[in-house]
Amino acid sequence: MTIDSTTLTQAPVAGPTPEPILRTARIVRLPRSPKVIAGLVILAVFGVVAIIGRWISPYSPNQTDPQNWVQHVLVPGTGPGTGFPANYYPLPFPPSSAHWLGTTVFAQDVLSQVLASTQATLFVGLLAAAIATCLSILFGVSAGYFGGGTDEVLSLVSNVFLAIPGLPLLIVLADYVPTAGSSIFLVAIIIAVTAWAYSSRVLRAQTLSLRNRDFVEAARVSGEGRIRIIVVELLPNLIPIVAASFLFTTLYAIYAYVAIAFLGLGGSPTSSPPGLWNWGEMLREGFANNAIRGGWWWWWAPPGLCVALLGTGLALLNFGIDEFINPRLRAAGLTRRAAKKAGIVSRAKLGMTPVAAHHAQAVSRSQAGITASREVGPEPVLEIRGLCVDYGYGEEAVHAVVDCDLVLRRGRVLGLAGESGSGKTTLALAAIRLLRSPAVITDGQVLFHSKPVGGEGPSGTIDMLAADADTLRAVRWSEISVVLQSSMNALNPVISIGAQFDDMLRVHRPHLSRTARHEMSGAMLELVGINPDRLRSYAHELSGGMRQRAMIAMALALEPQVMILDEPTTALDVVTQREILEELIGLRDRLGFAALFITHDLSLLVEIADEIAVMYAGRLMERAPAAALFNAPRLPYTHGLIHCFPPMHGQRSRMDGIPGSPPDLRALPKGCAFNPRCAWALDQCRHDVPHLAPLNGSAREVACWLHRGDAKVPAELARPDPVIVAERGSVAPPGNLARPPHEVGR
Amino acid sequence: MSANVPVLEGRDLTKYFWVKQGRGPLARRVPVHAVDRVSVRLDAGKVTALVGESGAGKTTVARLLARIIKPDKGDVLLAGRPAPSGRPRSYAAQVQMVFQDPFASLNPVHQVRHHLVRPLQIHHMANGNVDAAVADLLRRVALKPPGNFTGKFPHELSGGQRQRVAIARALAVRPRVLIADEPVSMLDVSIRLGVLNLLADLRDKEQLALLYVTHDIASARYLADTIVVMYAGQLVETAPSASLTDKPAHPYTQLLLSAAPDPDRAQPPHLEGRGAPPSLSAPPSGCRFHPRCPFAMDICKRQVPPSIALDTNHIAACWLHVDPAERQANENGQVLTAGQPLDNESKKR
Fold it and tell me: CATH for A66-325, among 3.60.10.10, 1.25.60.10, 3.50.7.10, 1.10.3720.10?
């Protein structure tokens, strides 16, 4: 059944947000590229000519026009005085009203020949491409899917065909079948035989990668037969590649047909059995009869231009398919245009997140906030004020981060928790302007209060959003370093770990000698628990955990003041994760850097962070000391999130998590973004967006209407703050409230 | 069917993967001991969790039980009888699998309806009314109203909804066994419990036998009746889930539990047995955990530990739980008798 747009928008809360159906979106989007439009127009013209050419052609292509055959040239060496009878050579007519494209030397109409040729050439090209595509699908997909012996045999066949040069084989085949020229089908088959092997290999490679995808495995597990898996599950996923290879093969087939006809292997239209008129044949006749030397351009230019134009058309369309398959290519052009429309000059510069020009006015506003929320604790090192980040521009912009304030203090670990898509990574990377266009910082301020540990590097307060590329270069890595979840894959596989350390030190600490750099690298590795011998190792020789540690060592090497840790241990096993976290915390205690620790795993964060900020749908929703946040959450979302982690002790009981699913940033609910999933949502929550504000007197902030005005705060959100007994980590929850009472004993 | 016969049982499953070592025609092919003599049983109306780190062989066991791959040694028994060779449809009708990544396990070019209709058609389950059967399936996995979902493409659904569709597809053939390979690890934290609760409901209401493969021991404790812990391709401990997490008997299980995030923990945990799992192409002799084990003894290096029954259904493969006299006798080459109960040695911990 189908769903119309009204039922889509009326989907229940748990349902997905409305989204245009992919297929229609693709079809609408495709012709937006001028290249594709040009290609389509060219092909359409040729298509129409090929179909109706027969009927609009003024003459038969073979028909000579005796009435106009009057211009003659005496063949040298004949005629009076030579003893030979006069022999006249005909001259072609230039374009005239009777013959729009002139005539050949045989007084045949060039236009009629072009029209007839277009049909045959196009037909042969398409037919050959169709046959070749079928062959390549047959060979490529079966080789890729069945694998093993089948693959070896089929790949061998296609490799043999790939190794044989196409044109010579074509000539041999065309010569071997003398009647080939008279049959469109024979010509097409001969061309197809030389053309299928390349796309077959491409399809085989693609099938190999698709074969092991889960959806194919799932079809197999459900008992689906092999043929159906190939035809129904695999092939539709290969269509973009099949289409691209079909266009490419068409182009090749047309060139090949023109080439063999030009060599005279296509069979002359006037011989018996008659060959077909085609562009190659026209060119051959022209060249054989001195069309170039005679300056009779109207004879050879039209078929030549046709070949070139059709080739251009197909190539343009192929570009379009590339863009269509690879969305990155498509986005590049569109966003630039959208950016221009929205009045933002975005220089697509790597590692320089563009800042919207109008953000300057907002700075004064947020400056006021800085003094307002000075809290007790170590001095701040990184201050993020009212930061807003969009993806895309103007109307299409998605607001990934909205009005976020964060203060990172020296030597402290600030945890940033949230689900995927909540904007936590965007927030952190925007602060050091590492995001690339189409991300754009639309508002806010990021201040880095630098006090370099080693005395090197920039000091004083740096406005990160106003900083130029050189300042950012000096600050990044040396003062603010980043470790990402995928960092362990960021090590260069062909250079040893030591060389990568060396590179980094040479850039940021130019005065160090080679031996000093080497010693320092070894010391850093030792710091994270890796033997310095490993400097000689390559990335693939280390386990995932070791590579991640090596990255952390590299991030620490320049004694940064701030480390941004974005899910640094998520891809690792629990034991490795624990070891790395222990090391990080130990290093933090020794080196005194501040860390912004981003993760979706709140249960982990509680153990290592001093303070936790919770993000939802691009906004900071709650901020509190870690123990207070976990044991006495004030925000319904935090409360729900905590109860998404089953406990490791006590009675096992059913937990319900949070109903519904995280919102789509493109279609946020009105009011508080969490209200559709919130059990305690008030009327106000559905209309007004709550802002982060301090909670009466305490060090914590929350963005929730339940804690404003005279709404009754639910008991679950009103537990007393835990009493901090001593240092971090030893927190006594008041009474038996570590778990909410309603869960015990169920 | 008698209550004692497990719905699906793997006995002494062993699987080697052969990998090339070196390059060129002279490359040797060496076996990777991915799974070594692993026995698992799945009972109707019970969830068995398979827990371990990546590379421990969890997924291989799941795929062996689903018969996507063939064991090199050992048998798969379906309701007490050896499973038919190959992967006939009769087996697919009884044992189904849910994959880890709901973004990859649904074909992006097909609507939800196609994914559910195919198994119904293949196994002739629809009784002529395909639409009603599809709607029923969607309701069983709490995708309501079904009409909103049948025409959707996978990319139009959220991760949790996709995983529900994948579960619905597995349920379409009315299987007796569902093998779920990390079904929630790719999902957002806030929707994981919903999917786990769905699996729990299916176990309770439809008496499904479930294998829940996971690296997250907390979620295994939440969902499973029995937890099976794997390390480096071998079973190390099997126990009812509360008993396993409260009284872990194997040093590796203890390590795993101490490393898992636990906000209720008062002190930072102390890890016993740091380091990484061994290479499976040349696994350590004896107990595979001995290079990391804080309690390793001489015998651990030489002999594979026996499986010792510590309690009802609580089995650990560890020399610590063997009576010292017997251990000595065994070391001298004498035959080991049946498993001995917990001894003084384990109190040392």
Answer: 1.10.3720.10
**Residue B169 — φ and ψ, nearest 5°?**
-60, -40
Q: How do beta strands A562-566 and A380-391 pair?
A: unpaired
Q: What gap in Å lies between CA A378 and CA B277, rounded to an integer?
A: 41
pLDDT digits (tens, 9 = 90+) for A619-644: 999 999 998 999 899 999 999 999 89
Q: Which residues of B touch A217 (CB under 8 A)?
A: 68, 99, 105
DSSP output for A310-370: HHHHHHHHHHHHHHHH-HHHHHHHHHHHHHHHTT------TT---B-TTHHHHHHHHHHHH
- C-beta atoms of B268 and A601 within 8 A: no
Q: How far apart are CA A570 and CA A552, in angstroms?
A: 14
Residue B98's pLDDT band, with cuts at 50, 70 and 90, is: very high
- Taking the CA of residue A100 and the nearest CA in chain B, the distance in Å comes to 50
Q: How far is A519 from chain B (nearest CA, A)?
A: 25
Nearest chain B residue to A602 by CA: give it: B263
pLDDT recorded at residue A372: 40
Measured CA to CA, the distance from residue A94 to residue A100 in angstroms comes to 8
Residue A120 is which amino acid?
Answer: A
Band of residue A740 on the pLDDT scale cut at 50, 70, 90: very low
Judge contact between A103 and A109, C-beta under 8 A.
yes
Inter-chain residue contact B221 with A16, CB threshold 8 Å:
no
From CA A121, how far away is CA A255, in angstroms rounded? 9
3-state secondary structure of A308: helix
For position A337, what pLDDT does the model report?
Answer: 62
pLDDT at A374 (0 to 100): 46
Distance CA B113, CA B151 (A): 6
* Domain at A353-479+596-746, CATH from 3.40.50.300, 3.30.1490.100, 3.50.50.60, 3.40.190.10: 3.40.50.300
d(CA A428, CA A407): 12
The answer to whether the CB atoms of A654 and B257 lie below 8 A apart is no
Summarised one tens digit per residue, pLDDT across range A357-371 is 655 444 444 444 444
| Domain boundaries defined on chain A | 66-325, 353-479+596-746
Residue B304: CB atoms within 10 A of its CB come to 15
Which H or E run includes A440?
A: strand A439-450
- Taking an 8 Å cut-off on Cβ atoms, the answer to whether A237 and B157 are in contact is no
pLDDT at A186 over 70: yes
Q: Is B118's CB within 8 Å of A222's CB?
A: yes
ipTM value: 0.85
Name which of A1, A534, A575 to mutate to probe chain B: the one with the most chain B Cβ atoms within 10 A of its Cβ.
A575
* pLDDT at residue A563, rounded to an integer: 93
**What is the pLDDT averaged over residues A11-25?**
37
Cα A195 to Cα A174: distance, rounded to the nearest angstrom = 14
Overall pTM > 0.90: no
